[in-house]
Design goal:
The protein is mainly alpha-helical. About 60% of the residues lie in helices and about 10% in strands.
Length: about 120
Amino acid sequence: MEEFIRCEEENSNAEIVERVKKEILADEEIFDLAELFKVFGDSTRMKIINALMMEELCVCDIAEITNSTPSAISHQLRVLKQAKLVKYRKDGKSVYYSLDDQHVKEIFEKGHEHIEEV
């Protein structure tokens, strides 16, 4: 049976509640943030990010590293690109992928730190 937690007094922290309500992110920003974290919710995409933290790679290299197919990796890279987590550059007929910026690496590393603490 679940135990329900009740507040002893209604509005006992009215000042705190009002301050937080004024400072909390707008719903649109919260939605965008949730969408970003959804992208991190796939183990293949996390492997791709982890690999790209070490080296700029082409689709075939990423597929080999992740034991996947180039087609599946292309799909995942498209998702990562749309979320502005990876970028690419062309060199002749070859396309190489890398992390879009340092923030992506920091998000990954912070998440890794968190799970290592648990």
